[in-house]
Amino acid sequence: MPLFEVFVRPRRGLQHQHAGSLRAEDAELALQYAREIYTRRREGVSLWVVRSSDITASQEDDAPMFFDPADGKPYRDATFYELPSKVRGL
Amino acid sequence: MVDAADALRDAQSRFEQRLTRDERVEPKDWMPDGYRRTLIRQISQHAHSEVIGMQPEGSWITRAPSLERKLILLAKVQDEGGHGLYLYGAAETLGASRDDMIDALHEGRAKYSSIFNYPALTWADIGAIGWLVDSAAIVNQIPLQRCSYGPYARAMVRICKEESFHQRQGYDIMLTLARGTAAQKAMAQDALNRWWWPTLMMFGPPDAESDHNSESFAWKIKRYGNDELRQKFIDQAVPQAEVLDLTIPDPELAWDEASGHYRIGPIDWDEFRRVVAGDGPCNRQRLAHHRRVREDGAWVREAVEAHADKTRARGLRARVGTGSR
User: Fold this and answer.
1) For residues B324 and A53, is the Cβ–Cβ distance under 8 A?
2) Is A52 within 8 Å of A4 (Cβ atoms)?
3) Which of A53, B146, B211, B241 is most buried, judging by how many CB atoms fall within 10 Å of its CB?
4) SS (H, E, C) A23-62
5) pLDDT digits (tens, 9 = 90+) for B75-120
6) Would you list which residues of chain A are within 8 Å, Cβ to Cβ, of chain B?
7) Residue B214: per-residue pLDDT
8) CB A86 to CB B322 under 8 A?
9) Which residues of A touch B72 (CB under 8 A)?
10) B168 and A73 in contact by Cβ < 8 A?
11) In which residue ranges of chain B is pLDDT below 70?
12) Residue of A nearest to B160 (CA)
């Protein structure tokens, strides 16, 4: 039985978020199971199920190559720039 | 037939109720064709503005006055490209195709913000663009974070967060120049002189003359009028110019005690219409550059496709992301 990843939209306007996974015979049933497993307490208003094998994920080993270039760039944050105390609205 | 008509009526009323309750519309929800068309037009033009907006600033990357300023400017221009991609992605959830959107831009059926048809003549222009143009963009975009279409609203949340760096780095450049030598301060003043009025035009014509207004309000795509947003920007920018000790190039600018707002002199709407119609200082150059880059890059897109096809045919996967997590 294939594995599915379950995504729940907590409420309208928010994005779907990963909730967990489950096994199911097919996507339709995965949706039914997801409803039972992940939304018993009004956790959301919409569900997505995606076959886990359809997800391409970055690997642990790739992390430095993927994410290190973002290090050492504090100038990408607004707080990097000091403003005179009188300035408002920036 | 009756059933189909009933179903449509139901869908319409669900859509209306959603708007009334201030809920977001999502890609798989039923929506009127006009709503979809309006959003595709607005989001794609917004995306084009981000991408075309890379040009005036990009021209200064090689000429930034220090390595730090160069890194900052690179990061900013890269962000603008990223914003364009968030927005093209949001338009694509409505069924728009990237090629169609780009064709519309190239054929003049889709516009981009008129502000990017002005040249960045000096380094101070990079300061003025960040401070004024990005501030104006933020004033426009903050209400769009609550736009009725979910994917657009969520893209705006990301974009606004990143824009605050853009605005600050611009003001930081202006501050450095304004506190520098007399020549540097004059350069900052000159940039303010040239960018002030075109920035005010970014909010679009006065509400009374604006084309697409009433439906956009009813659909909660737009929540504030052009004049109201323009005023909000002016009220922020004038005191910021005072801190810089620079002069807003408007002899009629005055504080109006009664309303609690700054009043400005008349905006030259003829200039605005001329620039929108294609006759600004850089319109042809901007589009020609966009076209050329797209054509020059065609072989890269083809090569990537060919590589993906070949990899698929061999049953291989790319090195990155081999399945399990």
Assistant:
1) no
2) yes
3) B241
4) ECCCHHHHHHHHHHHHCCCCCCCEEEEEEHHHCCCCCHHH
5) 999 999 999 999 999 999 999 999 999 999 999 999 999 999 999 9
6) 12-13, 15, 46, 53, 55-59, 62, 73, 75-78, 80-84, 86-90
7) 85
8) no
9) 75
10) no
11) 1-2, 211-212, 316-325
12) A78
B197 in Cβ contact with B267 (< 8 Å) = yes
Report domain extents, chain A. Answer: 1-55
Chain B residues contacting A, CB < 8 Å? Answer: 18, 23-24, 26, 68, 71-72, 75, 79, 135, 150, 153-154, 162, 164-165, 167-169, 171-172, 175, 236, 239-240, 243, 320-325
Candidates B290, B263, B219, B292; CA nearest to B22 is B219
Q: Which two tokens stand for residue B97?
A: 């195709």
Query: Residue B167 corresponds to which tokens in the numbers above?
Result: 């605005």
Residue A3, SS3? Answer: strand
Structure confidence at residue A28 (pLDDT)? 95
Residues B260/B232, Cβ–Cβ less than 8 Å:
no
The two three-digit tokens of residue B143, written as one number: 């209400």
pTM: 0.91
Say which CATH architecture domain A1-55 belongs to: Roll (3.10)
**What does the alpha-carbon distance between residue B126 and residue B173 come to, in Å, rounded to a whole number?**
8
Q: What ipTM score was computed for the predicted complex, to two decimals?
A: 0.81
